Amino acid sequence: MSHIQHRIEAFVKLGTFLRKFVSEAHETEKTAVLKDFSTFNNQLKLAEAANSWFTRESLLFALSQWGEALSKENLTKWLEAYNSKISKPKTVAIVMAGNIPLVGFHDFICTLLAGHSVLVKQSSNDQHILPFLADFLTDECPSLKGKINFTTDKLSGFDAVIATGSDNTARYFEYYFSKNPSIIRRSRNSVAVLTGNENSEELQNLGEDIFRYFGLGCRSVSKLFVPKGYNFDSFFKAIYPYRHTINNQKYANNYDYNKAVYLMSLYKLLENGFLMLKEDKGYASPIATVFYEHFNSLEELKSQLKADEEKIQCIVSRGFIANEINFGDTQKPNLWDYSDGIDTMKFLLEI
């Protein structure tokens, strides 16, 4: 068995572990005993204590998605498209964001399965989960020993880099890493296109795209495109099951603050006590707010979204455009769904 096959098998075992952990976590939710998974459970508690956006629900959801993704079937389907062989294993530095749990894990997986070593610089907002998963992989695949390293210092000794951050940090990354092969990711947001023909189930599923991770992910829907005269009553009725979101103190604080700012600025708002809708041509809406914009025709909207494609991560719709995402599925990407449309695996096999 090749060393890459050993790595694949380790990730398959990790997927099994995560699925079992999440299953038992839900079964013992009230007591959080998790005797067989106590060490990992403690890491989740640390993650939750360090970052109040990382609720127990959010952490378990993220782990469940990775557990489902890391099946033998999914890994085989994903990797069979790549026949390239790397000429020499290299060290790839990954600068991770910390907006949602394990947001840089896909880059981590790609790097190891491409045959490289990885040097990880984690966000201070998400430091407790990945080291445990790395130890699990190393235990399952001893040949990974020395191939996974973490640092809090200035990055050095790497051959290529994958870095994710805001538009401001991206400019710094582009300068700092200009001499190395790189993927530099900037801020992106996701949008939904509503025609008025959506049923209540689709609109409720859209709530999942809006509220999961409190709207902090690049795959979170932060803007709606609607036809002129669109009535938001059905939308507000459908997302009512997500009203518990306001119980998170940080979310509630943002809701109150942004509402006060909007009202003092005399902006017209639509709101229901836990989400505000503001008409705005921007894409990056503040927490607890979703922007909306009217369109004249779907063809004009297609042209607009094409022109703005570097600002957009996902488009949620039904029968509107190629590669659209179904309502409720933005936070459930497959292994072959690459951020920013950049084939990370291809990049890693060619450096």
How many strands, what sense, and barrel or not for the largest sheet?
Answer: 6 strands, mixed
Strand arrangement in the largest pleated sheet = 8-9-10-7-6-11
* C-alpha geometry: globular
The count of helical stretches stands at 12
CATH architecture heading of the largest domain: 3-Layer(aba) Sandwich
Q: Kindly report the average pLDDT value.
A: 94
CATH topology of the largest domain: Aldehyde Dehydrogenase, Chain A, domain 1
Structural class comes to alpha/beta
Q: Termini, distance in Å?
A: 25 Å
**What is the oligomer described by this structure?**
single chain
Overall tally of domains: 2
Strands, count: 11
Order of helices and strands: HHHHEHEHEEHEEHEHHEEEHEH
CATH C-level of the largest domain: Alpha Beta
Helix proportion: 40-55%
Our Rg estimate from Cα atoms comes to: 21 Å
Q: At the fourth CATH level, what is the homologous superfamily of the largest domain?
A: Aldehyde Dehydrogenase, Chain A, domain 1
Strand content: 15-25%
